[in-house]
Structures are given as C-alpha cells and as structure tokens.
Amino acid sequence: MHDPERLTAHSRTVMETVDEIRARIGDAGVIAHEPAFWTRVAAAALLHDTGKIAEGFQRQILPGGPLWGERHEVLSLAYVDLLARAAPWSVDDRLMIATLVATHHRPLHGAEGRRPSLASRYNDHTDWKRAFTRIQALDGTTVPQVTSGVHHELVAWLAGMLGIDPPAHPPDGRTLADRARDFLKDLLTHWDGAPFEDVAGADNDPARTDAGLLAALGQGALTLADHAGSAHIPLQTHLPLPADYDTHPPHRPYPHQQHAAQSNGHLVLTSPTGSGKTEAALGWAAHQIRSMPGLPRIVWTLPYRASLNAARDRFRRDLTAAPGEDLPDIGLLHGTAAHTLLREAADDECPTGPLDDGTTETQRPNSTEPTKTLARQARARVNAMRLFAQRLRVATPHQLLTAALAGPSHSSVLLEQANSLFILDELHAYDPQTFGRLCAAMRLWEALGSRIAVLSATLAPPLLHLVQDCLTAPVTLVRAAPGTAPDRHRLALDPEPLTAPASLDRIRGWLHEGHSVLVVANTVDRARTVYEELADDARKACPGDPDAALLLHSRFRHQDRDALEHRLLKRHPERTTHDTARRGGLVVATQAVEVSLQLDFDRGAVENAPIEAVAQRAGRVNRRGRHPDGPVEFRVHRTEGHLPYDEGAVNAAWHALATLVTKDTTTFSEQDIDHLLQLAYATEWGTAWADEARRCRDDFARSFLTFQDPFHDHSDFEDALSEQFDGAEVLWRADEDTYRRLIKGPDGDPLLAARLLIPLRYRQLNQFQATFDRGLGVYITEGDYDPALGLRRPAEPETVL
Hints:
Layout: H1 7-25, H2 37-47, H3 55-60, H4 72-84, H5 91-102, H6 118-121, H7 128-132, E1 134-136, E2 142-144, H8 148-162, H9 176-190, H10 206-231, H11 255-261, E3 266-270, H12 277-289, E4 297-301, H13 308-318, E5 331-333, H14 335-346, H15 369-389, E6 392-395, H16 397-402, H17 407-415, E7 420-425, H18 432-447, E8 451-456, H19 461-470, E9 475-479, E10 489-494, H20 501-512, E11 517-520, H21 524-541, E12 549-552, H22 558-571, E13 586-589, E14 603-607, H23 611-618, E15 632-637, H24 647-661, H25 670-681, H26 684-704, H27 715-726, E16 728-732, H28 736-744, H29 750-753, E17 758-760, E18 771-773, E19 778-781, E20 784-786, E21 790-792
Parallel strand pairs: 3-8, 3-9, 4-6, 4-7, 5-6, 7-8, 10-15, 11-13, 11-14, 12-13, 14-15, 16-19
Antiparallel strand pairs: 1-2, 16-17, 18-19, 20-21
Helix pairs in contact: 1-2, 1-10, 2-5, 2-10, 4-5, 4-9, 5-10, 10-15, 10-17, 11-12, 14-15, 18-26, 20-21, 24-25
C-alpha cells in the first residue's frame, strides 16, 4: 500500500477536482437557479477532511495503529465554523457547506440503517471533550487532539486557499469540540423533517424540495470529487460518439433516422426491429450535445442486466476510441459489482461499527484493521471511479432509480444524472411498477437539465401517453414510415404447447431441411427441456459444426454469457442481400434473446407471451426481410401457464393474435404489430396496466423524489428497491475461491469478479439454496452449473425409507 497522502495535498486535489466536475455538469437544470452551488461545493471540498488533523485519526492510519472510533467529519465542522467568521459566506452558504462536510460519509438521521447515523453516534450522551479535545497517550497522560501550533498552521493554510485573511482568535473561548457539537446540533435540527416513510402522506413544500435536491446534488459533487481525488482518476473528456454522427452517419439513413437526428429536446422513436433505432438514437444524441452546457454524458439503459455486455460490445465495435487508445472506453454500471463498489467507496478510514468478524473496535484496540480498511477502500474508490469516468455508459434502471435515495453511496449517481442524455431502449419491456417509476425519474432528469429519448419497436398508446405526461417540455414523436420493413413473416397460431410431440417434430423437419431455427420458451426449465430434445437433430443436420445447437438464457455466468453471445452473433448474423444459402442450426432461448442481439433466423417457434415480447421474438426471424423465400413461418404456441409473465398480459396477447389471424391475415407486417398493440391494450388488462403504472409513478415521485429529507438513512428502502428492480446475482460455490481472490485480493478487481456472477430473481434464491455470504457481500448457490446449460437447481435429496 502506498504511503498516506498529506491532508493538505488531498484537500487541494479534491477542491481542484470540483472544477473538473463543474466543467462536466455545468449550470444545468435546477443547479442554474443557485449561483452559489459550485462555490459552496468547492469550499466543502477544501474543508471536508480537516477533522483528520486529530491525533486519534493520525495514529489510526499508522501500521498497527488503534482504531479511533470517532467521525472526522464531525470535527471538520469546527473548521467550517471558524472559517465562516472570515469568509464572505451568507447564512445559507454556511449551512450548505457544513451540511456537505458532515454528510459525505454518513447520514445525519436514522439509527437502524446499514451505516450508523451521526445523530445516533453524537447526542446528549456524548463526552465531547473525550471525543475531540484530548486523547490518552501511551504513558497514560492525556494530550491535545489538535495542538495549538498544528491548528493555527492549518487555519492559515485554509484561509490562503480560500483567498481570505485568517480569522482572528475567537474571544468566546469555545473549543473545537464545542464548535463541532453546536454546529452538528444546528444541522440535525435543520434537516430533521418528517420521517422518510411519512413523506408520502405529507404536504410537500416546494421550497424545501428544491433545497433538499440541491443539497443532495452538492453531496454528490463532493463525494465524486473526493473519490476521484483519492483514486487519482481524472474524469474523461473524450466522448466515443463522433461529434458529426448526426450529419455524417456510418450508413445511408432511413427518413426516420434523419428526423430523429434533427429533433431538438426529448424524443420518442418507434421503428421496426432491424431498422436502425440505435443509430437514430446516436444521431439524436450528437445533435443535442451542441446545445447543452458542459460535457454531457450518454446513459443507455436496457431492461435486462444480462444484455448489458452485448450492448457495450456493440458500442466498442462501432464508436470511436480516444487518441492513443485501441477501443472506446464504454462504462458499465453492472448490478452487484457497482452496488458494492459505491457502498465501499462511501466508507472511510474511521470505522465505528462491527468489523468483518463481528467484533467491534473497542474489543480490538490495537488491531491492524485500519490499514487493511484503508487499502480495501482505496481499491474500492479506484474501481468505483471507473463507473463515473466514462462519458458513455450502459446500465439497467436500477442504479439510476436508487440514486433517488441520495446518501453518500448514491448521490454521485444522482449528480451524474444532471446534464445527461438518457436513451431508454426497449422501454416496453418493463412491468407497470418499473415503467411508472421510470416515468417519475424522467421528470427528475428533466429538472436536472437532461434530455430523454425513448426507443421501441412496440410502444402502445397508453405507454406513449404516460411518457408524454411526465415531461414538461415537448416530446418529438418519430415513427418509421409504413413499408420501412418489408413483410417478413407468415403468422401461425398453434394451440398445441411448444413441447408437444407434433411441435417438436415440426421443428425437427425445419432443421433437416437446412433452416436455421429460433425457439423461444418463457421459462429456463422449458427452454432447457426443448434444447435437450432437439440438440442432436441440429447437430446431425450440421455435422462437424460446434455451434449447430446453442442454448441462451439468463442463468449463465456473465463471462460465459459473453462468450455465448459472441458465438451466436458469429453463427447467426443478419442476412445480407446476397446471402441466399440455408444456414441450418438451432438456438433455444428465453426472453434473453429479445434485446441487443442482432440475430437472424429462417424459422421461428415461440411461446405466447406479452404482445411486445412476441413482436421482439419475431424481430429475430427474417430480421430484415432478406430471406430468399420471402416471408417465413413464425409460429406462436399457446402456453399451459403464464409464468413468468402476468396472466392478463399473456391472455391479452393471445386475444390480439387470434383477432388478427381470423381476418385471414397471411403475412405479419409492422402495421399489424401496431394493430396488435391496440387490441391488447384495449382489454381490461390494458386499462389496469396503465392505471397501475400511473399509480406507481406518482407514489415513487411522492415518496422518493421530494428530497425533503435527503440526509436520513434510506438503506432499508435501498434493499427493497434492489429486490423490486434488479433481482439478485449468485455465485456458484465452486467459484468461491476465485471470486474471493478477485474481490478481496491485493491485485483483485471487483469488476472482473462480477463476471463470475449469475443473475436470478430474488424469489428464486430459496429454490437454488442460495445463502448470503456477508464477507463477500454476495449470495452463494449450491446449484449445479454447466457452461453449455447454465445454472440448474440443486438435486433433491433422496428419501431413504
């Protein structure tokens, strides 16, 4: 581990890093309404760690040094109070600077959360003199926590950095501990609003909401500057998207792509699969950046975490690297790894709670834990900063929505949502709860000066109305013209299940005729069953082809999923105009095939699902209508159950498909998809879906986006949101040692460790006998794993009679 950095050097670096962040964010959105915002953040950056001058902290960072057990940021408040006497700060300036200093590691209120709050640690029972005035020396005597000489030297240096005269010696005789105590009490009183869980029923105060939001953004700026300064990782200025992408796209654009690239402000784009939605959105983004302040970031969101790597790989392949680099640097906010890194980076070198083995600092006064903690958190800060350095990122909504909780772990994510471009790809794929909450988030992003583009091949009218209703500025609606995509499918409805003998025999016939076939099942177990039934037939039809039969679902390790997607894309790419040969081969998949994979098959057999999912599955069959036979068969099978989807959504889809087929439709066009959406959402289920999305939008905005109490601990809500939005990730028991080395070792990399994780839903953890390992911060499963088949449930124990 490197030698500890000098306090003055770190403070200067963090203060200078605020200038980098200001250059990136600019005066965007609500920040533009507070001229003093960046000045306050810079002052807080200079003062945030001044409490580390204490002897107790200085001893702690020495090898083998004892844990101090106090919070350095509380003592830092004394220096805010002292400097405020000489600086030209208003009452509001003083309050906000102190708030940022006090909260850059711990919440002010809330005793039961993951991190003990300052209110629970410092109160009427605190011995302030013992905490911050004197400390016991090795010989049993007491010495000052801050000697007079060191104190005056620090104050003079701080004043010089602020460009003011050092404050005169205060005549009131109050100690640093007295000043810290009184200032903390003022902050606790000011920010002690209604309990977080009661906000939904309270009358929201717009003035307090604006102040709370600005405070949370300021906290984000300070924590981001602190992490960047500590990690010595600069924020990137290069954007992988070429500046002229809107005027000089890589391919001749469709009219809808040109229209999108010339639109100003928010955008909703609906166009068929394979008609260039991604390129249209990139053109839109390039056009917006010219009229935005600072250095906007692009955040590309996808509904399925398992699809993120494929999207990032596509951008790395198609966009522009920085000078001197081989590939563009695309960020990846990836589930558990990002969650853990952000939380660890928010901690610091002043532990006050239980250690990893369950003991406390008072039980281990001479532990070497402080230096181990310092090393671990330094690594966490470096890795966390990788998530913020890039200007183009791929993410699920989870990290974006949890930013609404603010707090040191997430306020930097909240700040980074200012002056950004959000591209919400395949927005239709979310359940009504997540869709509604995303609509609430869009309203917040707009207030932060950001712009939003929604992309979908299938956006039903109620969904479009919800998006338009949540945004204040006009939304440009761009639809691909009729005929953009040729007729590609002959739709067939089959009342028999996909696993019926006749259904499997039909697929075998396609395979032996030399067709490539996509089969999509709604559950992993059924997909695996169909794969095991048909894989040998596919291999016999394509002898010697190692990829003649492939299985794709979500329960693969991320690294195996990446390799599998590369094989899929190579084996089943989009058909070119001159590609007329039959390709053969079988892919059996779940909904994992629906997003971000540019695949192309000759035939399709899928299970009935929500109508948008059926359309997406069709988009992988004869993707651009270039099959030499013209429209090809796309068969939808009725299912015996509805899981994992809502039963009403599945029934509404079948009703819409059956209505279309009864009209003697022989081909399945893009206009038919629009008709199917209207039919499905005109049902009782569709009305209930829209009502539920609207209710969730309003509840989320009221409960999480008022920011009236931004400095209460919200970790319980963080866990609840993780369960609702992001599911879980598990580690296969056999990978535990490798994961431990990557996550904990001195040369480890948590982002590489994340490649061993396997996505699951929370409700599936018991089925896979997954238990939470607190030391690793991840669930570990006893299930069976095969790189070709994925994760399977543990075998049931035999019953012995």
